[in-house]
Amino acid sequence: MKTFRDKEVLVTGAGSGIGRETALAFARAGARLWVADINLAQAEDTATQIRALGATARPLHCDVADNNSVQAMADAVHAEIPALDILMNNAGIGSAGRFLDTSLDTWRRVMDINLMGVVHGCHAFLPNMVARGQGGHVINTASAAAFIAAPDMPIYAASKFAVQGFTESLRGDMATHGIGVTAICPGIINTAIVANSIMEGKMGEGARHDKVVQFYQKRNYTPAQVAKVILRAVQRNVAVQPVSPEAWGMYFAKRIAPGLVSRLSEKELPFLK
Ligand code: NAD
Questions:
Q1: Residue 242 belongs to what domain range?
Q2: What is the pTM assigned to this prediction?
Q3: Residue 1 falls within a domain, yes or no?
Q4: Which of 159, 193, 196, 240 to mutate to test the pocket of ligand 1 (most atoms within 8 A of CB)?
Q5: Which residue among 75, 76, 136, 252 sits deepest, i.e. has the most Cβ atoms within 10 Å of its Cβ?
Q6: In the prediction, which pLDDT does 273 show?
Q7: Element of type H or E holding 88
Q8: Known catalytic residues?
Q9: Which UniProt keywords are present, listed alphabetically (predicted)?
């Protein structure tokens, strides 16, 4: 896809962070936006910012964990247009805590949003994209946690490894329909995700949670920087797109020195000490 002018783009989790900035970037490139979030007020705020650019945006309420909610959103979109050009399954939540401290409720909640949210989006929107026969693109927000599974993030890593695997499978499948599929692996990005993460066990202790939040703020790689890379990845139909330098580092480290990565994983992260 060489140009985004007049393309119909839907982004989930568009009320904040990477989703909001990517929606704004697509709007600046001439696309027409559908901005979905579980927090409708935040989606409306994103839509207002897009309209201020002179572009078109429709805010939508949607809980990606709930298939009925995603299907209702797709029905509303398809009542107005035959199919999306670009679907970005981006909504996600963070979670941290050693395995023995995790609850099964947290496992289900995170998998329902981070993995099934992506599946629900594809299930609801891809049939129309395929039937229209004019190609398109699916962007799934995975993570550098899909390269290296830190011991403090068993649930989050499991959800993002799964998104990565699903995305790879879908890419081969959709190629015959001219639909590109890209996994985005951002890195450490300064958004609201850590402040809103489910923290269990030692990770949930106030001081530790604050340290992680401060670490992400100090790193200060912005969601707007991620958005720029995402648009380029779609234009080039990249399969897996690491974004920040640490995401690239993790991508190569896992391939070049998996034994070293495994030994380092046993050590406590320096910024938590
Ligand atoms: P964020 O918290 O700023 O934004 C996430 C958005 O998703 C919020 O607006 C939230 O309301 C929405 N959301 C949460 N649950 C939802 C649901 N059930 N249905 C619909 N919307 C829902 O976080 P972000 O950092 O912009 O995260 C976006 C994506 O990027 C996530 O998938 C996250 O896992 C991934 N990611 C983030 C980072 C990072 O460092 N920030 C790194 C790697 C991957």
A1: 8-272
A2: 0.97
A3: no
A4: 193
A5: 136
A6: 61
A7: strand 86-89
A8: 156
A9: Oxidoreductase
